[in-house]
Amino acid sequence: MQNPQLPSELRDIFDSVKQLISNNSTGFGAKDTVVKVAPEALQNSILAALASGDKNLAQIVRAIGVASGMALKPSDGAVSLELDSLIESSLVESQLVEDRKIYRLTEAGSDRLATLEESADSSEGEDAVADQNRKGASDCSSNVLAASAKLANAVSGITQSGDRDQKLRATQLIDEVTRKLYKILAED
């Protein structure tokens, strides 16, 4: 199903990203292969989903799915369980608004997300590469998915409320990022 609000260029980019993530997340099995997500990775995805603003449970689940190209389809129960853990850790808070529980990042949650971003940014250095190799590919994947969730949320915000100029600039930026990602893939 295509989103009629997205310009065709953005839709093409999203379709390409979704296909790439889907191909890399499900391995060689069927499309419906269940991908087990570590609790910490799911928590990071939740934090990334909340980075763009307050959301209810269904919106968080949907944001994680969109960011992963529907490769990750966490259940409401799994997300709810991790939200409870994030609330206990004071990284997320909730409040009841019109009979709906709305979740938002706390300052500590924003700091944790910033730390994750810095960790991902520093992975260019040799020490970080060695550290990532020790942690394994799944931790790297969760960082990529968390970053993808933030990107998807930002693009969604632009497509929903941006003016024509903002949408054009966003499209150009996404094209540039896409080229840079392919350059990374082309490296030895």
State the end-to-end distance: 37 Å
**In terms of structural class, how would the helical and strand content be classed?**
mainly alpha
Estimated radius of gyration: 17 Å
Helix content: 55-70%
Q: What are the segments in which pLDDT stays under 50 over at least 5 consecutive residues?
A: 1-6, 25-33, 132-138
- Number of E-state strands: 3
Order of strands across the widest beta sheet?
A: 1-3-2
Question: How do the helices and strands line up, and which of them pair or pack?
Answer:
Elements: H1 8-26, H2 39-50, E1 55-56, H3 57-67, H4 76-88, E2 92-97, E3 100-105, H5 107-121, H6 126-135, H7 137-161, H8 164-186
Antiparallel strand pairs: 1-3, 2-3
Give a concise summary:
The chain is mainly α. The chain has helices at residues 8-26, 39-50, 57-67, 76-88, 107-121, 126-135, 137-161, 164-186; strands at 55-56, 92-97, 100-105. Helices cover 68% and strands 7% of the residues.
Task: Spell out the key features of this protein.
188 residues; mainly alpha; 8 helices; 68% helix; globular
